[in-house]
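Rotation project, supervised by the postdoc (A.L.). Task for the rotation student: set up a whole-complex structure prediction and record inputs and outputs verbatim in this book. Inputs entered:
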Amino acid sequence: MSEAPAFRRVAAFGGVYSNHLALAAAIADARERGAEQLLCLGDLGAFGPNPDRVFPLLRENGIPVVRGNYDDSIARGLDDCQCGYTDPRDNHYARLSYRYTFAKTSPANRAWMDGFPGEIRFRLGDLRVLACHGSPRQTNEFLWESATPTHFLAKLARDHDCDVILGTHTGIHWRRRLGERSWYVNAGALGRPANDGRTEVWYALLEAEGPQLSVEFVPVAYDHEALADEMRDERLPEEFIETIRTGWWTTCLEVLPGRERARGRY
Amino acid sequence: MGSTHILVPAGATAARDPQRGPVLVQLRPPPSPAPELPLTALDQLWFQVSGTVCNLRCRHCFISCSPGNHTFWFMSRTEVRAALQASVEHGVKEYYFTGGEPFMNREIVGILGDALELGPATVLTNATLLPPRRVEALAGIAAASPYSLELRVSLDGVTAEMNDALRGAGAFERAMGGVERLVGAGFLPIITCMRSWEDEETDDILGRFRELLAGIGYTRARLKILPPLLIGAEAERTHGYAPEERVTHEMLHGFDLDQLLCTRARLVTARGVYACPILLDSPSARLGDSLAEAAAAPARLAEQACYTCYRSGAICSNVPATGRDLQ
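Outputs recorded:
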């Protein structure tokens, strides 16, 4: 790895959740900001409408994808999304979403997803980056800002031989410096807003000069009303549409730690 | 974890995929009839911070805590701090504080503050010892930390009659007062309830809990239903496990071991370090004097309560384990 050629500026997209309109807007935005490479951290489906619409955007733009838990489930035809909910309400909506996404994802796209790697490694400046979905050790591990100690992340980086861990899975962007040249960056999600009352979605732009990393979280405004209409046409739950239109999460709340939950409306 | 892909700028040659073997968990064969499991990672560190001392005398307590049960004594702030420091090199992800009733320990707020300097902390409480000044102090340490302070409140019924039959007269009213003050201070306590009804009634009970809590201003209640553990006082109140209700080697074939708390946690007490917070009365669960010793020792699934963990999956965690065999 040490002699591998390095990037200087990359854009990382978190969970897409079938939000093809946000993905298209983020691709254009990242290119405009001079990202040499775009990559996606997995979970192409879930939540949004018409899952097959995200695939051409990824292929045409040469965007490599890390295998998310949703991709793993859909590709392998598992029974659920592997988010591990026990709350009956969360489970109800997770099931609805999963069944819809599974039924609407073409066999060809499922086969393509089955080839996604569990992690992608690259050099950014002098830094070794490990891009994963949840955590380097577990695809569906939630790393929330208020529930993830710095020493835990530093150990993960040591155990997995990297300077920067880049992940998603939670849907809320955050970053933390772990040491002089060590970072954790959660890119957030393109699929739905960050439970902050704003309709924009977020991605991460990472730039390195030697060992110095700078991370910018970029809000992406897109035609969220058009997405809401499309979701309604597909008869997706009103609760999901409300999230797109208001920026507040209405479902999948069980896994949120107290602090992140308290910041939201529900 | 699945395969690795090396990404390089356009035109460059990709480096070789590093060879990584799968993580194997070795189950020890007989002569021991009970399976033994090594610690996969020390994700959760539990503290028996008030020992077996509790202000209540619940009829279903799996370790029979009471005001007079001094089998395990309080941990001092100094003892807890030492274990917290030792936990850093293990990369512990979450800290849990239990008892007895943790708020019987006079140093509890300081102890929680120490933990919150390092990571997220959860305290399991009956919420009957939460006067306004203490709740204010908790809100203060929570606001000063980047990490979540979770209050997990045991409430075993939706009425005083239902709850107090298990937890004693007056417990319901006092606990509801505690929850109301916590909510007023900005906390979203996790309400846990031992299932003492038939399975098919669960949805109805959950609905009644939501209604009850909304009545005191807690409109987005976090609820967690726990299965009964048929040991301690609960075994006397109802019944113990049937002889065949044990975890065997065969049952672990193909089983997701992350669902068993002892593969990811240890419990520190004033009298040594244990495999899990449920097995305080089981000598076989004591794994050493120090955290390092107990982390290196395998946990033996020798107790029948292990069967409940096996069936229900790490019930003691705030959120269920999500470890699965992903490709």
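Student's summary: Chain B touches chain A at residues 1-9, 12, 15, 18, 41, 88-94, 118-120, 146-150, 186-188, 203, 206, 220, 222-223, 318-324, 326-327 (CB under 8 Å).
Supervisor addendum: The first strand of chain B starts at residue 4 and ends at 6.
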